[in-house]
Amino acid sequence: MTIYNLGSINADLFYRLPHFPGPGETLAATDHWRGLGGKGTNMSVAAARAAAHVVHIGAVGSDGKWAVERLTEYGVDTTRIATVPDPTGHAIVMLDAAGENSIVLAPGANHAIPADLLSQAMAAATESDTFLFQNETNAQRDGARIASAKGMRVAYAAAPFDSDAVSAVLPLLDLLILNEVEAAQLAKATGQNVETLPVRDIVVTLGAKGARWINTDTGQALDVPALPVTPVDTTGAGDTFTGYLVAGLDRGMPMEQALSLATTAAALMVTRQGTADVIPDLKEVHEMRGG
Q: Catalytic residues per the record (predicted)?
């Protein structure tokens, strides 16, 4: 079983600040560093560290060789990452003293993924495989359509939120993952509560409160609590959750078990500074869960 992830690849430029700047305010950063990131990259690394086989579908510029090499080091299949004329995407990540973040994205190559790359990448995919995607690349509906036609599980993390992008793929989804804010935005955009959407499994992440799984076939909801930790940096926690959740399901876990695994991985992630480079591996997650 394989997870095919149509996902962004970014250079994450981190700036630690005493607080987020207000309009017209200039602040000196107390620390600065570069890391590997992008929602897609984070999810690929998380799923690979959760023992799944992950093929990343994406693009970088000529300046992105280091990012592809690092993804390969982290166990991700990078043979379906194209090099395009656009520069590699990057993100400016501001971190305040409480560990909260504010992020500015420059998409670059993430919005220039070649049209034929998806069909080539998923040529050998079967109904036992999973297609995962987010809102930081082009070709989202094309990828979901190809995957749905093959009978693959189609999983979508609706972030950064865009109502038109979500509406375009909703009929093709098997699993929808959102946070509380995105769920409220989607309800407002569609006029429907998430419980009534035409997607079988919906997971709403609740930050420090954990996550809620809604099975729309049965109408049942299950709350999975988060582990109590002291956050250092919340960047990438949601992506880590999604990668671990999809990996657990890909490995045949029941939803409740996969959710427990994912909430533990996300809790461990917020105790670390950084994104893809510090995502915990399966051994660390099991140790945090007590064995």
A: 239
